[in-house]
Amino acid sequence: MNRKGQKILVVLLIIGVLIGGLTGCNNSASENTNDKLSVVTTTTLLADLAKVIGGDDINVEGLMGPGIDPHLYKASAGDVTRMQEADLIFYNGLHLEGKMGEIFENLETNGKLIFEIAKGLPKEELIMLEDGNIHDPHVWFDVSLWKNAAKVVKDGLIELDNTKKDIFTDRYESYIKQLDELHLYVKNRSLELDENQRVLITAHDAFNYFGKAYGFEVKGLQGISTASEAGTGDVRDLADFIVERQIKAVFVESSVPKKNIEALQEAVAARGFDVKIGGELFSDSLGSPDTEAETYLGTVKSNIDTIVDALK
User: Which end of the chain has fewer CB atoms surrounding its CB within 10 Å, N or C?
Assistant: First the structure.
């Protein structure tokens, strides 16, 4: 073989090695990504629910991290790409993710498998807001209602992969038992307070389902959405209410700035009454990793313990 032929042979061998290496990499990547289903959720609450029922059979990615306010959240270009590439998407609905509605509609129109949790909830159990057009989206604060959300997630995963129907169903049924135990725990802790002590005042109006389920009168300084601002009149009226009812404590929220509750506390003090900040509640997201509140079960337990211990 002449020198020119040898050069050609070397070049062909190099190309063959490169192609083989690339093919091997692609096969490896395909094996890694295809082993598990890809599920994207909006909130930390839904990410937790998908992880519980999907277990090791799925990869779950939540778009919003701990402490993120879903009312104000704007999806990035990266978020849209993640949703486009996902096998399945779960979102809360009822305008909780207020700035993402059009994105969900477009994804569904283009054939993406997407589930709105709210569509699986009994309409008669939803709380209608005063204007009569929008429902309160904070459905997870009634543990018994959250069981319906678990069913939506279970059904969605089964639709995605029917071969794992029994596995998903077993995890779902096991989790329902845990939710029943949690519901009873919250009820029993609530009963440690006299009826006139069960008044919950928070940064925004997120706890109406909690109040309805567990016998609390609930007042939020801001409206249902944190997009609305609390005015001086709101602070004044709520401060008068606290003084009149001799409320012991008010609460800040992990996903809402403290300044409004602190302003409320100052307004109460100006009226000659001392109301303490009873602690931090988790409202629109779960707590940070490696804390009790990193799961839904832990978050609900942390909330009721904080509320009851501060108001007793």
Answer: N
CATH number for the domain spanning 81: value is 3.40.50.1980
Write out the two tokens for 296: 């839904």
Decide: 284 and 206 in contact? Cβ < 8 Å: yes
Give the integer Cα–Cα distance in Å for 189 and 301: 10
Other Cβ atoms closer than 10 A to 237: 14
User: Same structural domain for residues 149 and 209?
Assistant: no
H or E element that contains 297: helix 296-311
Q: Which residue has the higher pLDDT, 111 or 11?
A: 111
Backbone dihedral angles phi then psi of residue 224, each to the nearest 5 degrees: -60, -40
Domain check: are 114 and 203 in the same one? Answer: no
Give the CA distances from residue 311 to residues 37, 189, 248, 298, in Å, rounded to whole numbers and listed in that order. Answer: 45, 12, 6, 20
Contacts of 55 (CB under 8 A, 6+ apart): 167, 171
Chain centroid to Cα 283, Å, comes to 9
Distance of CA 294 to the CA centre of its chain: 11
- State which residues form the domain around 135: 37-187
What is the predicted pLDDT for the residue at 205?
A: 85
CA distance 68 to 74: 11
Query: Quick one: pLDDT at residue 19?
Result: 38
Taking each helix axis from N to C terminus, what angle separates 165-190 and 296-311, rounded to the nearest 10 degrees?
0
Side-chain half-sphere exposure of 161, counting CA atoms within 13 A:
19
